[in-house]
Design goal:
The complex is a heterodimer. By secondary structure, chain A is an alpha+beta fold. Chain A has a single domain, classed as Chemotaxis protein chec, CATH 3.40.1550. Helices cover 45% and strands 28% of the residues of chain A. Chain A is built from six helices and eight strands. In chain A, strands 1, 2, 3, 4, 5, 6, 7 and 8 form an eight-stranded antiparallel sheet that branches. The model of chain A has no long low-confidence stretch (mean pLDDT 83). By secondary structure, chain B is of the alpha+beta class. Helices cover 18% and strands 34% of the residues of chain B. In chain B, strand 6, helix 2 and strand 7 form a beta-alpha-beta unit. Chain B starts with a strand and ends with a strand. The chains are: A alpha+beta, B alpha+beta. The interface between A and B is medium-sized, with 32 and 30 residues. Chain A: Pfam families: CheC. Chain A: This is Chemotaxis protein CheC.
Chain lengths: 205, 157
């Protein structure tokens, strides 16, 4: 039985990498059509990292990020958290809402719901990738968002999964819109029993 | 002077002009204990209220109950006296609206207050709950705690 994400073997990691690739591809298509601009993407990096390192990979505990949190249930119990940088989020919101002066730290209702919708689209891109590869039935919760220090945002999944070890599954995406580069991160924390179930379905257990 | 950064589920002790720092407390709580006579300070960065929740993870400083007690004992070994100590507490936010049902931040804060009461250590200042993250700087020279947030809310407790 799996006890830690780091117990995952190479084929299992490859499978997760593939889900990351397909999910990010889906997300990109959805986002591009949402903001009517072409978004370019490099191959996403999928890593299993200790919590403390995740902070550093995000630019330090005090770096401000836009976080969107979604819980999944059904055949896959877990948490998705998207971390976008503020500039990238503003660019996306500009495309969606057509206005650029948005205070992300205390957003109005419209911006708040647009941010959550972006999170929803991205989350479903990964969920659909998993569902179509495995036939699993996965439900997602209503997303909620918060713009704050990366360390504070990360404490939420960390506490939620405190009994499971101190590691996160970390997908790093590098986007390019209009010659500007942006990095976004997806933290995917399925319960280990759900991962086992997933790998079984993919035939890599 | 020494600056010590205390990570999640960790603790440290300082004296005189040392500064103890915890960055980006979210639902976690930073507890600062101070003996103003010995000028010994200690900080612990807890993430859960109760060590009995997760019995197979014995790291004492992850939990309010075992973390505060262990820190207090360690400070006494260094020469601090419990009856002289006071506490300052920050963190315990509810970062995402969807967490309201579980509100672990509030549960953490309540557990911290309970443990401190049991140890008869008064709380001299606090900046807790609400919906934003905090970084704290604890000055062992005089027990001052500076709290900064990403919303530009900076206070001293």
């Amino acid at each position: 039985m799996l006890k830690n994400y780091s117990d995952l073997n190479a084929p299992a990691r490859d499978a997760l990498q593939e889900i990351g690739n397909i999910g990010t591809g889906n997300a990109l298509t959805a986002l591009s059509s949402m903001i009517h601009q072409t978004i370019h993407l490099q191959t996403p990096a999928v890593r299993i990292v200790p919590y403390q390192d995740a902070q550093e990979l995000l630019g330090g505990a005090q770096t401000v990020k836009v976080g969107i949190l979604i819980e999944t249930s059904g055949d896959m119990n877990g948490i998705f958290m998207f971390l976008l940088n503020e500039t990238f989020t503003r660019q996306l919101l500009e495309g969606v809402l057509g206005k650029s002066t948005i205070d992300l730290r205390e957003p109005d209702e419209m911006s708040q719901s647009a941010i959550c919708e972006i999170g929803n689209i991205m989350c479903c891109s990964y969920i659909n990738a998993i569902a179509s590869m495995t036939g699993m039935q996965i439900h997602v919760s209503v997303p909620s968002s918060c713009t704050d220090m990366a360390g504070s945002l990360l404490s939420v999944p960390m506490i939620h999964f405190a009994q499971m070890g101190d590691e996160l599954l970390f997908i790093e995406n590098c986007f390019r819109i209009n010659a500007c580069d942006f990095v976004s991160h997806v933290l995917f924390l399925p319960e280990l029993s759900s991962i086992e179930h997933l790998l079984e379905r993919l035939g890599v257990s | 002077m020494q600056k010590k950064v205390i990570g999640i589920g960790a603790a440290a002790i300082g004296k005189e002009d040392d500064v103890l720092i915890s960055y980006a407390l979210g639902s976690c709580v930073g507890i600062c204990l101070y003996d103003p006579v010995a000028k010994i300070g200690g900080m612990v960065h807890i993430l859960l209220p109760d060590s009995k929740l997760i019995p197979d993870k014995p790291d004492v400083y992850r939990y309010a109950d075992t973390g505060i007690t262990a820190l207090c004992t360690k400070m006494q070994i260094k020469g601090a006296v419990r009856s002289r100590m006071y506490a300052k507490v920050a963190g315990g936010a509810c970062m995402f609206a969807s967490e309201i049902s579980t509100n672990i931040g509030k549960r953490n804060v309540n557990a911290v207050r309970q443990i401190l009461q049991k140890l008869a250590i008064p709380i001299k200042g606090e900046d807790v709950e609400k919906n934003y993250g905090r970084s704290i700087w604890f000055y062992c020279s005089d027990g001052l705690v500076k709290v900064k947030s990403a919303r530009n809310i900076n206070i001293e407790i």
